[in-house]
Amino acid sequence: MNTAKPSPDTQPHCLGVRVKQLTLSFSGQTAPLFSQLDLTLQAGEWHCILGRSGCGKTTLLRLLADLLPQDVAWQGELFTSDARSMSDRVAYMAQQDLLLPWLNVLDNVCFSFRLKQGKASEAVQERAIQLLQQVGLGEKLHARPSQLSGGMRQRVALVRTLIQDKPLVLMDEPFSALDAVTRYKLQDLAAELLAQRTVLLITHDPQEALRLGHHLFLMQGKPGRLTRLSVPEGTPPRAINAELAVKQQAIIEQLSGLGERYV
Ligand SMILES: Nc1ncnc2c1ncn2[C@@H]1O[C@H](COP(=O)(O)OP(=O)(O)OP(=O)(O)O)[C@@H](O)[C@H]1O
């Protein structure tokens, strides 16, 4: 990874990231998925990307998480605001929950600490239990993933991401398996717990992006390009009001190819 001149961060947890002139192709494919793509993630703010299935959202996230397969060829530059490597400063929540079937819920949440330090400290375990209670899983600490519903598993994966306390958080459809009420509550919780973190969130839900994003982008086309969309007034997590509903409708029309122009 290339790094650039540092620009001062105001918060200890803040990390700005810039992707510059990214060109990326999977092996065997003639047309690149991205060509000369630029994206700036502002330190301590939430960025949401919407886009039709297959346009490249997950691939961009995996690039930032350094999780792309070997056969992907890419060129371009990644800059961090403090000129240090992103390594060990990224929490990544994949589309699949990736829970380990032989570990219970609590141990799954604490797994990264066990990997690094041999075991999770009491403070980490207490924090894990507190977070699991906050997402409504206080009764499931010792359940195995196979005993959970899809939405419960997704909440465990969310807690596992939150507890890592990283400055850059990458989340790929983190609330997609949740019912509407739980989704709304967990959007609020994530916004509270990840305030001052730099977040890149992929979602198919325009309402979610409009509630949570300080910055909102639409990915479309091949090669994929990012178009900035306007966000509603106010600080995330925003309430669902008339302005948000109008923007939501406009995004849906744009995604379905009907919209003339995003307002
Ligand atoms: N390992 C791979 N090898 C070849 N092509 C791939 C690979 N991974 C992804 N692709 C292709 O790259 C394109 C973008 O995939 P990606 O998963 O980034 O899309 P996405 O926008 O996240 O989609 P979704 O919203 O359905 O999750 C798709 O056409 C996909 O088939």
TrEMBL record:
<feature type="domain" description="ABC transporter">
    <location>
        <begin position="17"/>
        <end position="248"/>
    </location>
</feature>
<comment type="similarity">
    <text>Belongs to the ABC transporter superfamily.</text>
</comment>
<dbReference type="InterPro" id="IPR017871">
    <property type="entry name" value="ABC_transporter-like_CS"/>
</dbReference>
<keyword id="KW-0547">Nucleotide-binding</keyword>
<dbReference type="InterPro" id="IPR003593">
    <property type="entry name" value="AAA+_ATPase"/>
</dbReference>
<dbReference type="Pfam" id="PF00005">
    <property type="entry name" value="ABC_tran"/>
</dbReference>
<dbReference type="GO" id="GO:0005524">
    <property type="term" value="F:ATP binding"/>
</dbReference>
<protein>
    <submittedName>
        <fullName>ABC transporter ATP-binding protein</fullName>
    </submittedName>
</protein>
<dbReference type="InterPro" id="IPR027417">
    <property type="entry name" value="P-loop_NTPase"/>
</dbReference>
<keyword id="KW-0067">ATP-binding</keyword>
<dbReference type="InterPro" id="IPR003439">
    <property type="entry name" value="ABC_transporter-like_ATP-bd"/>
</dbReference>
<keyword id="KW-0813">Transport</keyword>
<dbReference type="InterPro" id="IPR050166">
    <property type="entry name" value="ABC_transporter_ATP-bind"/>
</dbReference>
